[in-house]
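Sample 3 of the quickstart, ligand S-adenosylmethionine:
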Amino acid sequence: MSETPRSHGRLTARPTIRPRDLMEGPPPVKGAWTARIVTLFPEAFPGTLGLSLTGRALAEGRWALETVDLRPHGIGRHRMVDDTPAGGGAGMVLRADVVAAALDEAALGTSPDRAHWPLLYLSPRGAPFTQATARRLAATEGVTILCGRFEGVDQRVLDAYAIEEVSLGDFVLTGGEIAAQAMLDATVRLLPGILGNAASTEDESFSAGLLEYPQYTRPPVWQGREIPPVLMSGHHGEIAKWRKAEAERITRERRPDLWEDVVALGPPDKTSAGLIKDLSWESLEATQRLAVERLSDRPSLQPEWLAIETLDKSQFENASRVLAARLQRGDRRCAAILLGWLRDVNWPGGMEAINALERAIGIEPDIRQAQLRAARDKDEIWSEALTDLASARAALAK
Ligand SMILES: C[S@@+](CC[C@H](N)C(=O)[O-])C[C@H]1O[C@@H](n2cnc3c(N)ncnc32)[C@H](O)[C@@H]1O
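Result:
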């Protein structure tokens, strides 16, 4: 085993400092949100994370960045980390034994509970990284990220460590380091106290399911183009109305997929949001763990598994919107299963919240029984339960 992970956070580092110099810093400030990166190229960090807001916060110890070098875990005199693909084919594959040793090093001192400390492998095959993923990560104690290289990583180590695969998008990068920086940038700016103006994360794209409205600044006229007069009016009500209308227009035009959810869901239900707020986070976490445990061995349900993983303290309301979106898209089986599982956990006051959640997402009481059956029973009777659901729906529609 090599030395403990190298820290990139230190109190005296300046944003302009070279990445290599940052690695000489003292251990991260205790309790700060921490990213541990397992990589063949530690010198790629902090990269752009060392600049501007994320860089300043890193230098001030408000978050920490540590790298675990794969190379010292390599085999033999040459510290080989990769080998040819079993079955033939181009390229090389990172060895399971080498990656496992580095992951063990990275696990030192971290919570074994993945809800508190997720373990990610960056891969084009992974679930798409979204703003919800960033919010989930920002609500944890830290994250360990494995950056692949070459043709990727031996599948056995991904299976053995139950690593969550996350993708930056539908394209192939040479390695995971750039993807890790993008994901960390999106996450770190959501940590409390990192951005000066917290409202700026509430207003921006994706926060309310919409893309952001256009922004303008001085001069008032540039090359004959004016700032929309309403923004210069000083009338806050009118400005808010204009921004909302523009956000809706842009979302409708550019992202019909996002717009579909906005139309289907309408504004968030304030009553259920209020009730949900009163739930204790511990009970919510227990539910989350239970649901993830039950879903994680069903690869076909991975999107649903991720949907429930978005249930974090501040985003429960959004999670109900995710459930609602699935319902609206006709994915009633998934929504029923999730709700059934939520019901399985005995929260103090939980039933009331679940009832409110169901009301918010439009599940009629008559259908609930069928949903509970669908949720609790085994695969073979799901079709029967779904038939019940359909007839209950039809009866209600009359
Ligand atoms: C050349 S890629 C391997 C691609 C792999 N053979 C495939 O076809 O899926 C090398 C590494 O880059 C990283 N990578 C590439 N594209 C990525 C993406 N879209 N999102 C996240 N990581 C990516 C992964 O860590 C991957 O192991």
